[in-house]
Amino acid sequence: MAKTRSPRRQQLKGGLALLALRLVGSLPLSLNRALGAALGWFGGWLPSKALRIARINIALCFPELSPAEQALLTRAAMIEGGKSSAEIAFLWQQPDKALPLIRDVVGDQALRDTLGENRPAIILVPHLGCWEVLNFWLSNHFPLHAMFKPSGLDQVDTLVKQGREHFGTTMYPATARGVVGLVRTLKREPVLTAILPDQVADQGSGRFAPFFGHSAYTGTLSNKLIQQTGARVFMASALRLPGTRGFEIRFRDPDPAIYSEDIDQALRALNRSVESLVREAPAQYLWSYKRFRRSDGVHRNPYKKRP
Questions:
Q1: 232: phi then psi, degrees, rounded to nearest 5
Q2: Is 34 inside any structural domain?
Q3: In total, how many domains does the chain have?
Q4: pLDDT above 90 for 173
Q5: Is 1 exposed, middle or buried (0-12, 13-18, 19+ CB in 10 A)?
Q6: What is the pTM of this model?
Q7: What is the average pLDDT across 133-152?
Q8: Closest to 126 in 3D by CA, of 292, 291, 293, 285
């Protein structure tokens, strides 16, 4: 039987989370980033669930690195993860400060040409760098339509939704009805949607495909949208520059097989495209996420502690 969440407890958790976000997000960017880096540095040395998961993922995905090199990448990833957590709080509350932080945009002309030809576009945005900055840039330049899955903490969800809608993003609920509405819009207008392609999909909403050589349950939503709308696909990231210089946005073409009608071939191409983007800045990827937690019956869950 599913565990029932107490509304009062959820409200208290939401209030405390919102307070923390408000405090961290109110700091000047220099202090915000310093705080995030410090928290990430400690997180790279002190035992924690996030550190354990990051170590497992990096060992799985970069077996060619020596143990010392894997340890260095893990610590760097924890620092970047700390920066990411702090800056997201900053950006959700102060979205107008996001755009001046974008120092360069690479590869966007093809996206502009695609929409200019009245063809919709799908932007695949892995958990790399600062995806919230990318959302702000896209919605400030184009009609952006995206899906939103609530966290269950109403106060936090309100803050996130307000931030993401600041420049005009149209949000759809992450439900079957929301997907239908998004498909209709993409078929009707030259708009774009952004999807996080490296989330573990809900049961029944994905298939297993290799990711860095290991079986990962991969969502089929992007493939369905491609086939139903004829949209052009772009891979994208907003990479963090040193210090407080800001971000560089990059657009890349995906592996061409992502357009295949064979769903397994398309998902393999999707994951290869994510891998390629991650290799451009591996320390800025969210390695503390349990990407391989679903078992395909052959490969075991690597995060499960064995007796």
A1: -90, 145
A2: no
A3: 1
A4: no
A5: exposed
A6: 0.91
A7: 87
A8: 285
